[in-house]
Amino acid sequence: MKTVIIGGGLAGLAAAFKMAGRDEILIIEKEPEPGGIASSYVIDNYHIEKYYHHIFASDKELISLIEELGLGKKLEWRKGTTGYYYNGKIYPMNTPLEILKALPLMDVIRLTWLVLKAKGIKDRTLFDEIKAKDWIIDTSGESVYNNFFLPLLQSKFGDNKEKVSAAWLLGRVQIRSNRGTKGERLGYMRGGFAALIEKMADAIRQKGGAIRNGQVSRIEVENGYVRGVDVDGVTIKCDRIISTCSPHVLEKIINTKLLGCDLDITYQGTACALFGLTEKVMDDVYWLNIKEEVPFGAIIEHTNFIPVSDYGERLIYVTSYFQSPESVLWQLDDEGVIDMYLKGLEKLFPGFRSKVKWWRLRRDMDTAPVYEVGYGKKVLPYKTGINGLYLAGMFSEANYPERSMNGSVAAGFRCVDAVLTEGIL
Ligand SMILES: Cc1cc2nc3c(=O)[nH]c(=O)nc-3n(C[C@H](O)[C@H](O)[C@H](O)COP(=O)(O)OP(=O)(O)OC[C@H]3O[C@@H](n4cnc5c(N)ncnc54)[C@H](O)[C@@H]3O)c2cc1C
Predict the structure, then answer these.
(1) Rounded to whole angstroms, how far apart are CA atoms 233 and 242?
(2) Ligand 1 centroid from CA 295, angstroms
(3) Confidence band, pLDDT 50/70/90 cuts, at residue 182
(4) Same structural domain, 255 and 382
(5) Cβ(101)–Cβ(91) under 8 Å?
(6) Where is pLDDT greater, at 178 or 213?
(7) Ligand 1, CB cutoff 6 Å, lining residues
(8) Mapping DSSP to helix (H, G, I), strand (E, B) and coil, where does residue 187 land?
(9) d(CA 221, CA 347)
(10) Considering the domain boundaries, does residue 66 fall inside one?
(11) Are 274 and 258 members of one domain?
(12) What is the mean pLDDT of residues 341-355?
C-alpha cells in the first residue's frame, strides 16, 4: 500500500513518522524544505524560526516526541516575560502585582473573577455559540474588555475580533493563567525547533519514507476511492492520502465534493518580520502587546527569552495577522511592509532604525483558523467519507480551541490512529 501525505509541516511529519515502516510513505511539500509554519531561517551559523515559537508545559505529545527523538536535553523552560504598551509606556504584566500596577484596581478584581470563573468551566461546548466579547462584558464589564482584552483580541484577530467565540477565550485563559507569583515559564529548544524537524525527517527516511518537493494540484478520487495525486504535471498513484493543507486549498484540488465536511473555514494570514539588531530594544520584555495605532499587533524580543550569546546579535520579531488577501500586508512588496513596520517601530522606540543590521519577512495566507462563533461544528474529521482520504492539521480537533505545534503533532498521530483502526496497515 502507498500513502501520500500532502504537506511536510508538523502534522504531515508526525503522521509520516508514525506510519513509516508500516507502509510506503511519500510526503509532498511545496516548499524546498519541510517544517511548514514551524520552519526556520539559517542566518550565518544559526537557525531561527521564521515565526516566533515557544511551547507550554501542557504540550504533552510534542514534549514526549522531543524526548523520544533524543532531543530532550535541548528543551529548556525559561521565563517568558510579557509587557503591555500604552500611553507611551511599557507596563510589565508578569505577576499579579505587576498587573495590579498596570490596570485600575476594580479591573484587576473583575479580571481575577473572570479567570477563576473560566478555570472552573470544564465543558466549553455551549460557549462555542457565544461571542467572547459578550461573555467578557457580561462577566467583568466594559472596562476590563476595553483595557485588557480588546488589545489582545485586536492583535490576534484584527477585524475578526468581534466574531471570536467564548470557547476559544476559555481555552486560552485556561492555558495562560497558570503563571503563579513569579510569572509564566515557556519552553524552547536551544538551537531552535529546526532540530526537531530535521530529526523527524531523518527518522522518516531511515524507515524507508521519502520527502519530495512539489505542489499537489489535484487529488484524484474515482467511485468513492482515492486513486492518486497530480504533482507538477505528473500523476502519482496511491491507495491513501493524508491531506494537511488548509481546507480552501483542499477544496480547490480535490475533484469531488467532500460530503459531511464544511471546508468553508475562515483563516487568517500573518506577516512576520524578523530583525537582526546591534542593541536590545526593551528591558527584559519578551512579548509586548500594544495599545497604540501601529501597523503590527505584537513585538517579540527573542533575545530577551533566549540568551543573545546563542546568536551573537539581538533578534526581534514584529508581527501582524491580516484577514484578507486585499490587506496591504499581503499586497505590498517586502520592502513596503518593512517600511510600514519601521515607521511604527520608530513611533514606539525612537532610533530603532539605526539598530537594524538585517531583516527577513515571512508571509503566509493560511496561518490560523479564526475561532469564530460556531467553529466547533466545523472541526474536520481525521477520516473522511472518501475511502482512503484522511485529514490532519490546524483544522483538526487536536488543534481546537487553539492551533499549536503540539496540536499538529497530535493531529498527525491521531490521524494515523484512525487509519490503524480501519485495520488496513
Ligand atoms: C505567527 C505564528 C506564531 C506561532 N507561534 C506558535 C508558538 O509559539 N507555539 C506553538 O505551539 N505554535 C505556534 N504557531 C502555530 C504552529 O506553528 C502551527 O500550528 C503548526 O506548525 C502547523 O503545522 P501544520 O503541519 O498543521 O500546518 P503547516 O505548517 O501549514 O503545514 C502544511 C504544509 O502543507 C504544505 N502545502 C500546502 N499546500 C500544498 C500543496 N498543494 N502541495 C504540497 N504541499 C502543500 C505547506 O507548504 C505546509 O508546509 C504559530 C503560528 C504562527 C503563524
Answers:
(1) 20
(2) 23
(3) low
(4) yes
(5) yes
(6) 213
(7) 6-12, 28-31, 36-38, 51-55, 215-216, 244-245, 249, 253, 270, 272, 319, 367-368, 393-394, 403-406, 408
(8) strand
(9) 54
(10) no
(11) no
(12) 98
